[in-house]
Amino acid sequence: MADDALREYKAQQSTEHGFRFLKDPLFFTSSVFLKSTKRIEALGMIMALCLLIYNLAQRQLRLTLELKQATIPNQLGKPSKSPTLRWIFQCFLSIHFVDLHGVKEVVNLSPPRLHILSFFSYGCQRYYLLPAPIS
């Protein structure tokens, strides 16, 4: 009985972490004002879908790191086998897509960022205009 209670309590932490993510100011929900109940429900559904996609991407990244027995530097520069996707997003904030006179280029794609990209699918890598999968 005590084991069941502990398991339920630990599962609740995961759910609470998800709601903390949704309430984060970076998610910009505080800047959305909705009057219609249907629109509030629709926004709730979109937020839940975003959280699902976020968690699936984070899980896939961590599984790939485990499979390749690799790490990614965390905020302190120490190797991490379980980075958050939020940290990865922050690492990529200064990357920009530039289209100058028809020439498309991604700037600030440094070696550490290429290392991180190597753990994502080729579809993600193509987003950064990379010609072939990074291994």
Helix/strand layout:
Layout lengths: L1 H22 L13 H31 L4 E2 L5 E2 L4 H7 L4 E5 L2 E5 L3 H7 L4 H6 L8
Antiparallel strand pairs: 1-2, 3-4
List keywords for this structure.
135 residues; mainly alpha; two-stranded antiparallel sheet
Q: Can you characterise this structure?
A:
This protein has 135 residues and is mainly alpha-helical. It has a domain of 90 residues. The protein has five helices and four strands; from the N terminus they run ααββαββαα. The strands form two sheets. Strands 1-2 form a two-stranded antiparallel ribbon. It has a two-stranded antiparallel sheet with strand order 3-4.
Rounded to the nearest angstrom, the radius of gyration is 19 Å
Widest sheet, order of strands: 1-2
Structural class: mainly alpha
Distance between the termini: 47 Å
The profile of the biggest β sheet is: 2 strands, antiparallel
Short description:
This protein is mainly alpha-helical and 135 residues long.
